[in-house]
Structure formats: structure tokens, C-alpha cells
Amino acid sequence: MRSFICSLVLLSTAFLYGQTQPSAPSPHPVSVFVYERIRAFGWQWYEAKPYQNSYWYGESLLRFGLSQSLTHWDWRLEITQPTIIDAPSKAVSPVTAQGQLGFGATYYAANGNNSYPAAAFLKQAFARYKFNENDKNIRVGRFEFFEGQETKPKNATLSWLQANRVGQRLVGNFGFTNAQRSFDGIDAHYGQGTWDITAMAARSDQGVFNMNGNPELNVDAQYLAYSKSDWHDRFLWRLFAIGYHDGRTGIAKTDNRPLPVRQADHQNIRIGTYGYDFLTAIPAGPGQFDFMSWGALQNGQWGPQDQRAGAAAIEGGYQFLHVAGTPWLRGGWWRSSGDNNPSDNKHGTFVELLPTPRGYARFPIYNLMNLEDEFVQLIVRPVHPWELRSDLHWLQLTSSKDLWYQGGGAFDNKVFGFTGRPSNGFSSLTSVADISSEYHATKYVDLNLYYAHSWGKSVVGAIYPQNRNGQLGYLELVFHLTTPLSHH
Does residue 316 carry a pLDDT above 70? Predict the structure, then answer.
């Protein structure tokens, strides 16, 4: 709450300053921006008595700063101040397989066993040079990067699919967490009309669950993609390649090898990922069909092991455009490879690199590694600023000899970032049903609600036999405003 009050004070100061300067407006004003996100979470992780699997905690995320767009330059300077309120102190089980019982426990453990961690750090600080056209530019500094979202489709359906079903599968800012992720480096766009080439090379910063996001990690990524829209913005496709390196050799890797073997592994991780995605929306009858296809292969080194892995997704749906609420029914399938032999020299688990996993696992009890996911989803928009969505997922492990993976990649120099729980020879993980409400109450305020329930299957039951059901709910209030700092 104190961050929200600070936001209002900052805005008031900016407003009053502007009112006292009646000179002619500048064609390139400096703008002040403020973003405040407040959440109240209720977790019920799978039961692990006597440890606390049911609890409430709060989050506050304040982001504020200055930006300016000139003829050939734009720049942004941004500070963020994340706070966790009353993270549970008894929700980390010493039983390795049970581990941290939900995000509240992860925040507590990642911040030195602190129930009220808070920090302030430099979130973004970059300058971008724009050539004669805006689709040709180069940016240097600290920034957020959203893989798969380099273009801005004019077609509303493709835009939604790009943001929700393609973007950030492998590289993103992990925006669902309270400290999030930034990158220090350089990126560039070169395009014209319907096509775009994007390149990026950067080191990842700390953050995500650790409230201090200032330090760099010894983790870097390189990205190259070609995107193109066709057939009057009805088709959108992309080819991409990602290089990933993790040089944190003092941290035990998370995989299905025995612990002593992993602890003795002090070699780097170097992975190449090569993939594509394709989106389309085709008018048909009273509505339109949509289709999405995504696939990737990986090679390289996972320490001393050869990385050989892959993943694929196919999705489709139909939206009624001339019916109240424009109901949109979709379904899909995802499969990523797992490792079938912990004793050989091959690592067969598809690695999700540095993603924002929550877009594909809205109840964040799993990620997209060693996973088969069959799902259906329904999206309804009763009125323009209000979206209701419900998903139903049937989840299995691809390999019963591999792990049940969670997490969104490196975020700290002390922990690996991905966690894994044993499968105990099972593959049936859980079924998940959820519902969300996103309401743009005003130009400056959004109000969001979310609830999910998990019915754990044999993998979950082997680790949490007392109660294999889990729940998550949260209420979210977002305030955002951008305004000129002065009028002269």
C-alpha cells in the first residue's frame, strides 16, 4: 500500500509542476509513467503436514520512471519497487520431494527467509536509435524482452494469439512474478511493411522471486527471428533461433540424474534452440476459425551431457463474431520431450530457457518441460472492456523416468531456477480447471480475478498422499498512467 501512496505523490507532483508552466507545449515532451499492481493471494498447495500448505499473502509492485520519444531517438529510465507482504514462514518442507509449497514459500526462501522482503532497483535504462522508419531501430541498455512478440498484428485475433499462445514461451520477463526479469544488452529490428528481422544479445538479470533485481547473472541469451504477415494480415509466421548459456557452474543442475552426479557436474550449459510458429484466422460462416502451430528442436551441451530435445504445439478454435459475448472455443495439444535414461550421456528434456511460463500454466504448479498438455478453453467478452476465460487441462509427464518440472529459469546466483520433483515411475500428473475475469474499469484502472483447482493424479499423490488437491485464487488491482512531465 505504501508503494501505491508513493505513486500518487509522484503523480501529483508531476501534475502540479505541469500546471505552473504555461509555455507552449514541446513537440517531444518528457513523460512520467507510473504502474502499480496490488495482489492478494490465497494458496492451497498439496497437503504436506505439519507444514503450512494453505495461506494468504500480498504483493505490491510499483514501476515508475521517465521516457521520451524524439525524431530519431527514444529513451526510458525506470525504477521498480517490489514488496511481498506476509509470506509464510512454515511452508517449506524439508522433505526434498515436497519442497516449497507454492509461490509464497518460494518468495520466503528466495529472500533469505524473510516474510516481508522489499527492494528497489533499476528495472530499465535504455536508449534506442530509430533510422528513417520506426521499423528499423537499435536499442542498448537494460530492457525487457518478449520473444515472439516482435511484430504488432493489425488483426485482433492474431494479436491475442501472438501475446497469449506464442509469445514468451522461451524468453520473457516473467511478468507474473513480483520482481520480474530484465536483460542487459542490445537488440535491433529491421523491417519493412509485412516483415521484420529481430536480433538480441543480452545477459539476464536477477529478480523474479528475488526482490533485488539489480545484479546480473552469468546467464546470457542470443536471439534471431524473421517474422512475416501474409494474406491481408490473416497469416503470421516466424522462424527463430536462440542461443542460451548458463555459466553458473557452482549450482547443481535440476535433472533426473542422482544428486551426487549433479553436484559433481561443474560444466556450463550451452543450448541452441531452432523453431517456428504459424498463426492464422480465417472467416467462416458467422465467425472465424483460428489455428496455431509451434515447434522447436534443441541441441548443445547440458554440462557433460549432449542436449537432444524437442517440443511441439497445435491449437485451433472457432469464434462467433455476431453472437452476444463473441464466444470463442479453443482446444490444443502440447508435447515436450523428457529424458528416458538418467545414466546415459544424453539430456533429452526440453529446456524452457528464460520464459514467462504463466501464460501456458495459469495455475503455476508446472511448466512446459517433460509435459503433455491437452486442453480446451472458452473466452467470452460480455462487454468490450471485460473478458472472461476458463481453461481445462489434462496433464501428463512425457517420460515417467524424468521429473515433474516447475519454474521459469535462472533468477538468482544461488539457486538453479527450475525445480523438479520425482515422478516415482508415474506419468499421470493432474487435471486443472480455472476461471479468470479481466475488467478494464477505467482508462487507468484494471480489476482482475483468478481461481484454479487441481485434481492431482498419481505423480502428485505419490509425493503428497495426505491430500492431492490444490487451489489458487487472487484478486488484482492495477493502476497505470502516463502523462507529460511538463508543457514547455
Answer: yes
Whether the ω angle into residue 385 lies within 30 degrees of 0, i.e. cis, is no
**Cβ atoms within 10 Å of 264's Cβ, excluding its own:** 12
pLDDT at 134: 66
Has residue 1 got a pLDDT over 50?
no
154-202 per-position pLDDT tens digit: 999 999 999 999 999 999 999 999 999 999 999 999 998 899 999 999 9
Residue 208 φ/ψ region, left for φ over 0, alpha for ψ in the -120 to 50 degree band, beta for the rest: left
Q: In total, how many domains does the chain have? A: 1
Query: By the 8 A CB rule, do 161 and 254 touch?
Result: no
Give the number of other Cβ atoms within 10 Å of residue 72's Cβ.
10
Helix (H) or strand (E) holding 159: helix 156-161
Mean pLDDT of the chain: 93
Residue matched to cell numbers 467462416:
284
C-beta of residue 368 within 8 angstroms of C-beta of residue 361: yes
pLDDT at 264 over 60: yes
In the 8-state DSSP scheme, what is residue 92?
B
Structural contact between residues 421 and 463, judged by C-beta atoms closer than 8 angstroms: yes
What value does the mean pLDDT take over residues 135-152? 95
Nearest to 118 by CA among 4, 200, 3, 260: 3
pLDDT tens, residue by residue, 441-458: 999 999 999 999 999 999
> Where residue 111 sits, what CATH number does that domain have?
2.40.160.100
Q: Which residues make Cβ contacts (< 8 Å) with residue 386, sequence separation at least 6?
A: 437, 438, 439, 440
Whether residue 97 contacts residue 421, with contact meaning beta carbons closer than 8 Å, is answered with: yes
Q: Which amino acid is at 276?
A: Y
What residues form DSSP beta bridges with 140? 127, 186
Residue among 58, 74, 62, 177 at smallest CA distance from 121: 62
Determine the structural domain holding residue 221 and report its residue range.
Answer: 2-484
Cell numbers standing for residue 246: 548458463
Distance (Å, rounded) from C-alpha 311 to C-alpha 313? 7
Q: How far is CA 227 from CA 235, 358, 476, in A?
A: 11, 24, 34
DSSP string, 440-472: E-SSSEEEEEEEEEEEE-HHHHHH--S--EEEE
Residues 6+ apart with CB under 8 A from 237: 227, 228, 230, 276, 277, 278, 279
Gap between the Cα atoms of 203 and 411, Å rounded: 12
Range 305-327 average pLDDT: 97
Which residue type does 119 have?
A
Q: Whole-angstrom Cα distance, residue 413 to residue 209?
A: 12
- CA gap 457, 395 in Å, rounded: 9
